[in-house]
Amino acid sequence: MADDLSLGLSSLFVVAVVAALAPVAVGLFARLRVPQVVFLIVGGVVIGPDVLGLADPASIGLLSNVGLGFLFLLAGYELELHLFRERPGVLALAGWFVTVALACGVVGLLAAGGLVHAFVPVALGLTTTALGTLLPILRDNDMLGGRLGPYVLATGAVGEFLPVVAIAIFLGANGKFLGLISLLAVGVLALALTLAPRLARGRIRQILDEGEHATAQTTLRWTLVLLLLLLVVADRFGLDVVLGAFLAGVVLRRWAPGDVHALEEKLDAVGYGFFIPVFFVASGMALDLDSIISAPGRLAMFFVLLLVIRGLPTLLLYRTALTFSERVELGFLAATALPLLVALSEIGLANGSMLPENAAALVGAGVLSVLAFPAAAVAIDRRRARSRPAVDAGADPP
């Protein structure tokens, strides 16, 4: 017991050092415009068992899962449900189903050639978008506003939520039918929780309001209760905890009482200040470098397929809604994937349906997508920003 505690504390200390150094590295290499997430993942690889062996990913597994929960909580919180009644949501849904069709066709060919054994998790992995991973990058570069912002949020939300729903139905521990029932049960619970603040009245309401900004931090504590409750319920129903976290964010958007702006700042501080960096560093630590080195072609294949299957359809589907440069930028963002690839790889390895080299290559491709695609999108966005004054003045854009 004492040895486990010592290992966990030493691992957490090393992870905290990497998390603290990441923003310093971003500042030192500002000209390269490398997202902070990249330094966290690379730092995790360096301190992980395949390189320096300074930390053990298993010893911080619980904190990493809570960090994953925070990532999807904040992603769900950013989601505006009215977008799905408008053009961005309609196009995002159409784009995802086109992506599913492409993924099924391509992965079917790979399975026929003996390169893939686990058809469903690999196909689903190619339809995902890491909105939670993208959010800090989008915020830091002021890319959530303007005309493109709603399209980015809608595309990211669909690419994050619908694959989770598909995982619950097709890969859940309870089978397809019970998986669907479990999904509906968790959804009903999440809907019921939106009514919770109305139950607090009188003296209880006064206590909660008075403690909101005091040491009691009542609103923040109840938000954590909401998150952990839906994580536990999703896990008990045999669903991925990602689903519970995303629903918690959607619920919180309508549930949060009191000073909402202050709550958002507190959630950012707790999430981005501690738990989320732990998740990204742990993801780097868990990366199977030996499998990737032994089969680099598989990693390159999945990396290209992420861009072709998830990103390329945006060039056609959004041609009447966005300019070409906006569509290219959206395509790069849509093709960025990581957290769900980790979850799908774990599921495939646990049930023995996924080859270890494919699991490692899929996660490695997700890491590369986080390294490359957001950086490309940021570069395009900055170029468009520089061209706007010239266009407004009547001159030709550079």
TrEMBL record:
Pfam families from the UniProt entry: Na_H_Exchanger (PF00999)
Domain Cation/H+ exchanger transmembrane intervals: 17-371
Topology in membrane: Multi-pass membrane protein
UniProt superkingdom: Bacteria
Keyword Membrane: yes
InterPro entries assigned to the protein according to its UniProt record, in alphabetical order: Cation/H_exchanger_TM, Na+/solute_symporter_sf
Transmembrane keyword on record: yes
Membrane-crossing residue ranges in chain numbering: 12-30, 37-54, 60-77, 89-112, 118-138, 150-171, 177-197, 269-287, 299-318, 330-347, 359-380
Cellular location(s): Membrane
UniProt keywords, alphabetically: Antiport, Ion transport, Membrane, Transmembrane, Transmembrane helix, Transport
Record-stated family: Belongs to the monovalent cation:proton antiporter 2 (CPA2) transporter (TC 2.A.37) family.
Protein name: Cation:proton antiporter
